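Recall the central idea of this unit: under ordinary conditions, the amino acid sequence of a chain determines the structure it adopts. In this exercise we apply that idea directly, starting from the sequence alone.
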Amino acid sequence: MSAKEPIFAPESLRIVDHPILRPAAPATVPFTFNGQPLLARPGEAISSALYAAGISIFGHHHRDGGAQGIFCVNGQCSQCTVLVDGRPLKSCMTLVREGMVVQSCEGRPSLPHDDHVEALGRPGEIDVPVLILGGGPAGLCAAIELGRLGVEVLIIDDKPSLGGKLTLQTHQFFGSVEDCWAGTRGVDIGHILEKQVQELPTVRVWLDSTAVGVFCDGKVGVVTPQGYRLVHANSLLVALGAREKTLSFPGCDLPGVVGAGAFQTLVNRDLIRTCSKLFVLGGGNVGLIGAYHALQAGIDVVGLVEALPEVGGYKVHADKLRRLGVPIWTRTTVVRADPAPGKETVGSVTIASIDDRFQPIAGTTRTFEVDTLLIAVGLSPVDELLEKARQLGIKAYAAGDTAEIAEASAAIFSGRITGRQMARDLGIPVEIPSYWPELAAILRSRPGKTTPFEPRELDQPVHPILRCVQEIPCNPCQQACPDKLITMPGSIMALPTFSGKCLGCGECVTVCPGLAINLVFNDYDPTGQKALLMLPYEFSLDRLPLGSQVDTVDIDGNPVGKGTVMAVRSRETQDRRHLLLVEVPAQDKLKVAGFTIRKPSVPIDGLPMSGDDDPIVCRCERVRKSAIVAEIRAGVRDINQLKALARVSMGGCGGKTCTDLVRRIFLEEGVEWSTVTSGTVRPLVAETPLGAFVRGEESPHD
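Accordingly, the structure predicted from this sequence is:
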């Protein structure tokens, strides 16, 4: 092999056969990592290109030599820092350029000396009527409402494209069809909103631009590709979304322990099969959906644990995982992650049942061999700039997760309402429909009551079985039925009911976001020995050839019997969902809700453990729990003092990742958080190269 010939992992990690997403452009952009020639896709982040080449360790920390990889892939932490042409940059936020020289950060790297220093000049300044920070669902919907009223709007987003987390969501959304595109996949909603924004002449967009400070003169500091800019707006909306919480346990810092957003970014946005065996910590919608996305990408999901007695996400999400064969353990948590023998990346996770105080119960541990642990234990609003603006007396609005953590459908509606409220406050007469606030509250609500599932056989040739038994905001099935035979009396939170004579069209099976509806064909077999079911299926048909036998399961994933795949219906109108016709014994027809696609997970005995029981809390500075506990017991009650003494929160993320963990440690030590002085948040709230302040390029932004 010549020195210039790109080399890759033994088998390609790029996904080319995803059941929902179209294949990505081929990798054609040459660059090097530690002298190794590699190829990236056009517009691909360095971190993604490295993962596609089988590289998950990006360097080693200067304090203790700990291996560094990815965690958030959202610019919120600094785990993925590499040297790009000699300069330290976050690999998840830096796009590959042809000929780029990338090196791992080993210890304290020597940085290049820059003899060419331009004079520090006054930054360019602009005035806009409305400034929106964040190009996700809330920010875009607010901009659309304002732009349709002729208001000049500037949207600032730190990514190379609009859409926020919508770009990662391949599943169909819940909520209201009329108000927030329920039944449409998140990635498609992102494209719809982006197109609507592009059609509005009064809305401008700055991409790859990061708001880093709000100041007392009402100006917002923004780092753009052309340098630093100051933006003054009459009205400010902060819709920057949320960042992921994490937990501290032995091995939590290993490469391979990643946030759910990071995992979805690599798998769904960049089409990279990041691992082969995944374990999920957290049973909210984020964790449940992440596990499902992994299965669609051809990744085995070994299991999912949730500390509460029940999963916090929608039951239909948990049900479809159980049907596919993924075990879900409640009142259980991960107690440690350990590296694979001879490696620095995750090789196993150990779980344990927990008591009412969330403490592990002796004798309940089980260890599973995995290569990635997905952390999905909640979100925190990205609200530093919002809080600073309000402290300075600047009128600032919030929408989406910055205002309240909720589902993306709620963020869409939050943006619409906030946009109209901002227009009103600017003196523009516009109506906010009376039902909007109530609907917004419904979309933000947690799951309601769950009713035991009782299948009902109808004396009809064909009829649906509705396995939606939990009150959640969702109405696509009601809207899809051509004869309006599915009703939801009172509210979109009501459970759907069926009455009338079914046509057997399968529209309800096609559109249900929870894959909780199937059809029963009673007249399939004149002898009455067999029945035919129409079941939804969102995986590659290569996994399931016609005529194959499947192991059928009920709504909770319990075995029922056997079934045979007789036919597949795939049409463009089915939005990339296949409808399988599966033959089952007649006595099973009301029980069968699906079939498993994986074998049971089996614990592994005898795997070596690292013996490291003092977990990392601050990833940036590699501060361990024992160091923080020692300072608390010595009387520290001020986060600023704790930073000075232990260096916690002193790293590149500025405490964004570890502050919640530090709070937990104070509580564990019996110290009320209300008695602790919070850390001071100052500009700049994101890492900013000094070159941004001295570059003299002319910019179309000015």
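The chain has five domains: 29-106, 125-243+381-444, 275-377, 462-595, 625-702.
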